[in-house]
Amino acid sequence: MFRKLIQILKKGDLMSQAIEDSYEMFEKGISLFEKVALNFLGEPLEEDFDVYASDRELNKMERNIRRKILEHLAINPKQDIVGALVLTTVIVHIERLGDYSKNVYELAQKNTLKQGKYFERSKCITQRLFPICERAIEVYRESLADEAKNMIIELDKIKKECEKNIDEIIEEKDISVKEGILYSLFFRYLKRVTAHTMDILTSVWQPFHLIDFYK
Known about the structure:
Oligomer: single chain
Largest sheet: none
Shape: globular
CATH superfamily: Phosphate transport system protein phou homolog 2, domain 2
Number of helices: 7
Number of domains: 1
Radius of gyration: 18 Å
Helix content: over 70%
Low-confidence stretches: none
CATH architecture: Up-down Bundle
Order of helices and strands: HHHHHHH
């Protein structure tokens, strides 16, 4: 589906601007998430880095993209309707990356437990997730359908691993309440970011009515 949208870029109109903006928005969303996830795991943020300002920037970009799509359709009501629907769906998922990044950041302020089984598992999962998310930006930009399918398979494995860890924490008998809450929430946020990235990638190879569905 997104391959067709790439052709719109040649037109140089509002729709092409909106698509280009979505690339930048996706990149910023992934970058923000990586920063706060590392912060949860003990890596300090840059002194002047403002997580909330970054999230507001993503919200602003979503509004601007919507405005450009609407103005484009107002001028060309019969042109690129499917593309407009696809792009509107995609940017909702990108905006959610900012929301979950805020959640992770707020969780990081309370995390003084940077050791143990679930800490190590968190590090392992993020180390696997980051390069896939970074590559997803290019796959989305270049509309690489086959690679998108393969990445969704790998992301689905990570999502299931997050679920497994949450289930284990629930049944864990030798764990403090604080550790259980911190790491079950972190795995939950990792799972949701993974799922939204998967949903974005479905736009690359699925028809509009199947976007967000990848089974």
